[in-house]
């Protein structure tokens, strides 16, 4: 969700029914949450950036919008399951039920999620449209992208990802 501004404007996470991957374009993209995109990745570099597997430096002209308004159903999982399946689930959408968020008064920066089965970091960029949102006091549901930036972390797309 580029309008949430929690991700670099050159980055995009793609997911189908079985897996996901990060794509880094050579310039900022204008794709929206729910867009189906076809990307030619011939001759593109598959590499890790701070431990996140991505298709790197893809020319934006290689991407074609196929449809809009699509939804990805997040995998409902515990933090223990996410940590145990992290590499397989990287760049996919998950939903954690009954999770507590700690580590600061607002969502900005690094926070810790704990659902009683384990913990994982959640990062919110200071420039995200929801970074100043108060950290919820009680258990909530969190939908987020399984990601990595030197440490395992989750990335929310927009404020609606906390319920």
List the helices and strands and how they pair.
Elements: E1 11-15, E2 20-25, E3 36-39, E4 45-49, E5 52-58, E6 63-67, E7 75-76, H1 79-84, H2 86-89, E8 93-102, E9 109-114, E10 119-124, E11 140-148, E12 152-155
How would you describe the overall organization of this protein?
The protein has 163 residues and is mostly beta strands. It is globular, with a radius of gyration of 15 Å. The chain is 6% helix and 42% strand. It has two helices and twelve strands. A five-stranded mixed beta barrel has the order 8-9-10-12-11.
Give descriptors for this structure.
2 helices, five-stranded mixed β-barrel, single chain, mainly beta, 6% helix
> How many alpha or pi helices?
2
What is the averaged pLDDT score? Answer: 94
Overall structural class, as computed from helix and strand content, comes to: mainly beta
Strand neighbour order, sheet with most strands:
8-9-10-12-11
Distance between the termini: 17 Å
Characterize the biggest β-sheet.
5 strands, mixed, barrel
- Helix share bin: under 10%
Gyration radius (Cα, Å) is 15 Å
SSE ordering:
EEEEEEEHHEEEEE
Task: Write down the overall geometry.
Answer: globular
Poorly predicted sequence stretches spanning 5 or more consecutive residues? none
- What's the count of strands? 12
Strand content bin: 35-45%
